[in-house]
Amino acid sequence: MLTALKQLKSYRIVQLVLAAYQKRFVRMLIPLIILALVIWLGSRELHNMNIGRMLFELRRLSPWTIFEIALFSLIAAAVMSSYDFVVRRHFRMPISFGATFRYGWIANTFNNACGFAGFTGAGLRAFLYKKSGVPLNVITAAVIFLSPVAITGLSLLAWAVLARLFPEGQLLHTYPWLRWAMWGMALYLPLFLLVQRSRLFGKWFNQGKGTMPWTTISASLAASLLEWLFAALAFGLVGLRVLHGVPLDALIGVYVIAATAGLISMTPGGIGAFDVTALLGLQLLGVHPDLALTVLLLFRFFYFIVPWLIALVLTAVEIIPNRERIGELAGTGWGYSLNQWQKIWGWPGQFRFLADLGVWALSKLVLAAGLVLLLSAALPGLLYRLRFAENLLSLPIMQLSHDISVIIGIMLIVLSHGISLRIRRALRLTLVLLFAGALFTFIKGLDFEEASFLLFVALMLYLSRSRFYREGAPVSRTNVLIWGGLSVLVTVAYLLIGAGGYSYFLHHLPLRMRTNLLFDKEHFGIKTLLSLVFAWVFLTMYLMMRPQRDIETLPDTDDMDRLREFMSHEQGNLLTHMLFLGDKKFHWAQEGEVLIPYARSRNKLVVLGDPLGPMRKVSAAIQEFQQYADKYALAVVFYQASPSYLPIYHENGYRFFKLGEEALVPLEAFTLSGKSNTPLRTVRNRFDREGYSFQMAYPPFDDTLMRQLKSVSDVWLNGRKEKGFSLGWFNESYLQLAPVALVLNPQQQVIAFASLAPAYDHKQTVSIDLMRHLPDAPNGTMDFLFTRVMEWAKDEGYVMFNLGMAPLSSVGQSERALREEKLARLVFQYGSHWYGFQGLRRYKEKFSPAWEPRYLAYPASISLPILTVELMYLVSRKMD
Predict the structure, then answer these.
(1) Which residues of 530-543 are buried (b: 16+ CB within 10 A; e: fewer)?
(2) In the chain, count of helices (H) and strands (E)?
(3) Is 615 helix (H, G, I), strand (E, B) or coil?
(4) What span, in angstroms and rounded, lies between the C-alpha atoms of 419 and 626?
(5) Would you list the DSSP string of 263-306?
(6) What does the alpha-carbon distance between residue 866 and residue 873 come to, in Å, rounded to a whole number?
């Protein structure tokens, strides 16, 4: 078998297909293509739907019918926990009966809502089992065992449909491609049994204990059959209560075929392919399209959404974040790769983030509350309640309550993002809106069901209030566009549903209400647009009036004085002098004993160099700064980290990317004598003969010198922007802090200069900072300048002279280097037309430096390519 697989993979066409499938966009296109195919094939049968009639059929259902459908759907959802009882018994897991049922409910309903592929349920089971103390090897075996079991029940039902035990009308005859899909699903069961009883399966998946016993296989098959059979019965019950004259066995047959189509599509919950296939099947049974759509909506709501909402509540209560245990589990390498649909939905895609699932669940409850408010406003209330409310309340009050409900619904949808980020102010506003929404949705039509749900969500948020600790989060254009677009889409859906529904209901309403503005189609769109605008204006004002955050303030005169006093007794580094530029913010940690200088770039705080202060307190200072940044949903990055600090960064959860190497010239060994230094010696002698001179200027500088330096700098820039953050720029007050090296022509005019930057390490190291020269300066001017500066530094007693960093130097040279570092190596070798990487390295090599690496330390959750772009923007941004 393995030989056959290897031979198959050796074919070029197979390799091409596999390579294409590994591309994410190809995997996303597959369900879209399948969905488009189904819709295209059934487009003629779908165009006669009337949304107004569909909404009317929903509203006319009796409360007992709704209760019956809801109860059986919950029973069908509960049956899915039988999977967990099977693995609990077979793998002897020390989990209680109640916990097993809860874990099964959470995993299976999330899997139903987010995808039949099984990855969602697998990830949740792994986390929940680990939370109960089940060993990782047992979890792995159990989850891998369940993955192929889940669709065996559907395969068994597919055999029943093909054997005509469940007649499906003309669906398979009208759409022959569905017959091939059904045969493929049916053949899965014997293939599953063959693999389960093979020694290969026992070696790979049964912990080397041989083939799976028939008792366990039978129990798992029974669990899967129960799941799919009860789901089919739930679909059939909805059909029996809404439709008339359609037999239960035919409804089950349509469900099995539609479920197969949904499974093949790989979309969350089979959405799209399942629904269109079921609509086509019901219409071929003689069902009107509007009634068929009513059946689907009821089934989706009670079998998928209601159990999932209950799972959200159970998750919010069950999962209490424990970062140590999650970090331990994540460190073992366990994880599941979720599909693109789940990532778009906002699922915590990496396993380590499942610890935050409780808050994620609360955010989706808030999102659901907003949707419930809008749906309630779009659908007219029950007629007997409207007549009662008409006598109890005035119509203007009902109309105002309706409009406010729409506004609150839109705001709750947007605020659900703030809830997922644990923002305290978002929690407060959401609680107020939930209580207000419950009040106004009750007033507009005595909708106590919607009001009860909103109050329940508010209660869950209040009980979880201790989890909301963040003061704020960055508001990026991307977030505004995403959530603004989502609110617009939801508002358009509300407008379409409301406009279609009210027109059908209008002749059933009291005459007095019929002419009211609330049900006037001409004004409905205008009021909807105004509600959307008002919701965003209110949220914008609320955001703008937030308290001023310390994270945004630049250092003032007092901060600079504190920095000078701090550096008088602490060891600095090669980047310390740049803190006096005033463009970096200061975070004083460990009661002021450690200084962390940083600048903000979007949702990241980028620290320049290593923290300053006692080495023994740096790790605790980093943790303190991480907590400070986390209050605002920001991540901490260290730019140009030195090798001696890497163990500290590593223990605080950082990854590393080599930025390049710093050129450090040992001054004790620096000399112009010897054959290797002939080029430098020649340049110096030539400049001396031609009347050029070198001079060190010490602050304070007079206005005449500053004007000359400014003139040289402006000509050198030639209209280009100054760079910043890790590079100095022309700033008179900054230049007054350190000596400046000058090159003068025979007429004693400045043609080149370089400012110096002390390292604040007790006169051990000095660096070149700002370098400028006139374009017509003689060739070798900078060689002459550097040579004379190093001679001056040696005479002054400095030990090391820093020529600056050579970006991407010696990056990605190893065969086992990271992919990103190998890419950086290619940029270093072939990117000379963008930046002189190799030329800069060769130039600095002339001074025989020792090369010391510099790194970027970043959290694993951050995308390195995106971070690189943000750092380029940070360094290249225009300085004030």
Answers:
(1) ebbebbbebbeeee
(2) 39, 11
(3) helix
(4) 20
(5) HHHT-GGGTTHHHHHHHHHHHHTT--HHHHHHHHHHHIIIIIIH
(6) 11
Q: How far is CA 551 from CA 235, 585, 590, 834, in A?
A: 54, 8, 17, 34
Rounded Cα–Cα distance for residues 742 and 754 (Å):
7
Residue, of 678 and 131, whose pLDDT is higher? 678
Q: Round the average pLDDT of the chain to a whole number and report it.
A: 75
> CB neighbours (10 Å) of residue 150?
23
- 369 φ/ψ angles, rounded to the nearest 5 degrees: -65, -40
Cβ partners under 8 Å of residue 761, min gap 6: 571, 572, 573
594 confidence band (pLDDT: 50, 70, 90): very high
CB 342 within 8 A of CB 120: yes
How many CA atoms are closer than 13 Å to the CA of 35, on its beta-carbon side?
A: 16
Own/partner pairs, 843-849, CB within 8 angstroms, 24+ separation:
844/663, 844/803, 844/804, 844/806, 846/679, 846/680, 846/783, 847/663, 847/665, 847/670, 847/680, 847/786, 847/790, 847/803, 848/665, 848/669, 848/670, 848/676, 849/663, 849/664, 849/665, 849/803
Considering only CA atoms, give the Rg of the chain.
35
- CB proximity list for 855: less than 8 A, separation 6 or greater: 638, 640, 641, 642, 643, 646, 656, 657, 658, 659
819-845 as b/e: b if 16+ CB within 10 A: eebeebbebbeeeeeeeebbebbebbe
> 19-28, 264-273, 378-387 — which is least confidently predicted?
19-28
The three-state DSSP-derived secondary structure of 40-59 is HHCHHHHCCCCHHHHHHHHH
- Would you put residue 738 in left (φ > 0), alpha (ψ -120 to 50) or beta? beta
How distant, in Å, are the alpha carbons of 72, 287, 292, 705 from that of 66?
Answer: 10, 21, 17, 87
**Residues with Cβ < 8 Å from 840, sequence gap 6 or more?**
806, 807
pLDDT of residue 287 exceeding 80, the answer is yes
Measure the N-to-C terminal CA separation of the chain; round to a whole number of Å.
68
Each residue of 417-433: pLDDT tens digit? 888 888 888 888 889 98
0.70 cut: is pTM over it? no
Amino acid at position 691, single letter: G
Q: Is 608 helix (H, G, I), strand (E, B) or coil?
A: strand
Give the per-residue pLDDT at 729.
Answer: 83
Q: Find, among 366, 374, 370, the residue nearest to 501 by Cα.
A: 374
Give the Å distances, CA to CA, from 665 to 260, 662, 696, 783, 796: 70, 10, 20, 14, 15
Lowest mean pLDDT among 137-141, 557-561, 809-813: 809-813
Between these two residues, 169 and 359, which has the higher pLDDT value? 359
What tokens were used for 761?
A: 């390490």
Report pLDDT for 809: 67
Please give the pLDDT value at position 286: 82
Q: Where does the pLDDT of residue 645 fall: very low under 50, low under 70, confident under 90, or very high at 90 and above?
A: very high
Out of 75-84, 382-391, 798-807, 823-832, which region has the weakest mean confidence (pLDDT)? 382-391
Asked whether the beta carbons of 423 and 472 are under 8 A apart, the reply is yes
pLDDT digits (tens, 9 = 90+) for 230-260: 999 999 898 888 887 788 888 888 888 888 8
CA distances from 593 to 473, 578, 587, 609 (A): 28, 20, 11, 17
Encode pLDDT of 310-355 as tens digits.
887 777 666 544 444 434 433 333 333 333 333 333 433 333 344 4
Omega of the bond leading into 700 within 30 degrees of 0 (cis): yes
Report the sign of the C-alpha dihedral through residues 189, 114, 454, 379, in that order. Answer: negative
